[in-house]
Amino acid sequence: MEQYRAYRTCPLCEATCGLEITLQDGRAVEVSGDKLDVFSHGYLCPKGAALHHLHDDPERLRAPLVKQNGRFVPATWDQAFAAVEAGLKPLVEEYGRDAVAVHMGNPCSHTMAGVLALRPMLKALGSKNIFSSSSVDQLPKHLSCGLMFGHPLTIPVPDVDRTHMLVIIGANPLESNGSLATAPDWPGRLRALKKRGGKLVVIDPLRTRTAELAHQHLAITPGTDALLLMAVVWVLFQENLASLPDAALYRGLEELRRACARFSPEAVAERVGLDAGQIRQLARELASAPSAAVYGRMGTSTVAFGALSSWLVDVVNALTGNLDRPGGAMFATPAHMPLKRKPGGKGWRMGRWQSRVRGLPEVLGELPVCTMCDEMEIGGEGQVRALVTVASNPAMSLPNSRRVNDALAGLDFMVSVDWYVNATTRHAQVILPPTGPLSTAQYDFVFYGMSLRNVAHYSPPVIPKPESELDKWEILYKLAMIFQGQGAGGDVGRMDDFLAAKLVEGAAGKPGSPLSGKQEEIYQALAPYRGLERVLDFMLRTGAYGDGFGLNPPGLNLAKLAKQPHGVDLGPLQPRLPGILRTPSAKVELAPQPLLDDLARLEALLDEPPHNGLLLVGRRHLRTNNYWMANLPTLVAGKPRSVLWMNPADAAPLGVASGDLVQVRSRVGALTVPVEITDKARQGVVSLPHGWGHDLEGVRMSVARAQGGVNSNRLSDDQAMDPLSGNAVLNGIPVVVEAAD
What we know:
Blueprint: E1 3-9, E2 18-24, E3 27-33, H1 46-49, H2 51-56, E4 65-68, E5 71-74, H3 77-95, E6 100-104, H4 112-116, H5 118-125, E7 130-132, H6 139-149, E8 157-158, E9 165-169, H7 173-176, H8 186-195, E10 199-203, H9 209-213, E11 216-218, H10 225-238, E12 250-251, H11 253-259, H12 265-272, H13 276-288, E13 293-296, H14 298-301, H15 306-319, E14 329-330, H16 372-377, E15 386-390, H17 394-397, H18 401-409, E16 413-417, E17 430-432, E18 455-456, H19 472-484, H20 492-508, H21 519-526, H22 531-541, H23 558-562, E19 568-569, E20 588-589, H24 593-606, E21 614-617, H25 633-636, E22 644-646, H26 648-651, E23 661-665, E24 670-677, E25 685-687, H27 702-707, E26 733-739
Parallel strand pairs: 6-7, 6-15, 9-10, 9-13, 10-11, 12-20, 15-16, 16-17, 21-25, 22-24
Antiparallel strand pairs: 1-2, 2-3, 4-5, 4-17, 8-14, 18-19, 21-26, 22-25, 23-24, 23-26
Helix pairs in contact: 3-19, 5-19, 6-15, 10-12, 10-13, 10-15, 12-13, 20-22
């Protein structure tokens, strides 16, 4: 039996760990960490080690399914695409393009196709009803960075490897592997921080694994991050601790000073659940540390003041002199993006259109998922009658999941690009499964833009794609051609050539471009590649380290990158301001008007009595990945995890003990779940993990169904959101807990 090894980056989370894959007779038999990887150095979590089990899962679909008489039957690709055209074309012709909505899931950001091939499909559809997992996740961060820096993907990340002080707020990277801050081995990085004498502070309602590693854990009241950070800003101004190394680079300092007037530590302390002295100490230590970084994540985004919290994280980094400096919060320089050396630009806009029913504003080209059901259920011109899902499971992952399931069941037509018959795709008329994760190429477009070190990896397919399967980009291009009116029989190769030509002409046909007039040379250089690899080669050649199609011969291209299976180390993060700025002022906007206007809502919170009931928050586990890896035995084995954490002081009046069943009720739903009594949750806070509850009729995921558990989104409220970004509130949900009968 022939055995050999292949290398690639893991596509399952944002850490981008290097994998060493042992293959035998063309089948992956073991996955371990790549010790020679330039970034991960052999680190690997249990999810990455299970990648081959995902590829070989017998319940992962290998061929399309089409629903006939209420039951799925296997179909050829031609039959499946013909069914898509037959189902969607009449709806578009009768009701318009807004009658078809799209929902894109988190895994789209982890694949080349999800980044490069979705855009042509969405443009071809031309619908305003675009939704994604972003608005149950990080959309507030995109909004705040768009307003501050001029582009929603210009996101500063904590320079963990060089900082003297790291404050983590609303994040648990020891379980999540990090997010909006790409780096493998967060446990090793945080231990190294402590070993070199740095300080780690974790702000979280739960004593998570990350909090247990910290020097200081501040158990904050859920949803009050913006109040805490505003009080830190107040201290920095009042005690003359604010320090901007280059004040001319910033705009809005005085507006910010006036805006924080009411948010003293004493004013916010009761609401936040911390002592005023603790808040002052935090501000002083951030200001006095040789370098420091504040890093906020899900806990700061999925709350009622998500946009303000996300903004204030970077305001504190700026006011303490730690924005764009080693050891502070810095900007990555990804290999696929060109360097921007001259500051200034058109800036970033939101609210270019509104949702039909509730008038909620567009952000980043999409509408809030909290209003998706409104658009499906309420009649009238523009009502959503069909849905395309791509690597998403909104029936599980969206707030008020019972309502979402009912809305999906009422659609006229639905097509899903997905590997499984899950809680969402069971409602579809057509399921189009992409090839397996080991049979497609990998380059992390999204995550290298938020990496804690500048690196680049390209991974060709480890296992050849079977002729009977399609890559995701081929499926999405075919859908785009159907939406364009070219029909289900259109040639994907022609669309691939068309998009490549647009890319080349956009660069070489522009007067003044260094590539002007070099079209033929560019086409010749790109000739070895087709599909997304051709696009990647173009982007690498024109990127920050690229060969420029001969303008910089030693530079990077896809052929050179492919010869480095363990990746290329492009060095530590470097200061990038002001060149990276795209704001019209060519400055960092410390006080964008939409955020200043939203402070009135935060001030009003100070005048309300504190919530005296229980607040529900989520939590992560290293072996889970939202809702999309629940069918692998190696990841769901062990002690049941779908349990409610509850503080002993809250449990005592109920007379419940660990293992007892309790009923949890919110405004929109109720569920019964085992309770675990633990002081890891602060008093007044209960915690329930997401990612469970797949045991629904029609779901063909036997392992996930057998695990049971409850879906926490039965409790989350689709009417609760951050009004500025439209992001759902998934933390700090008011609930009532009672002993179950």
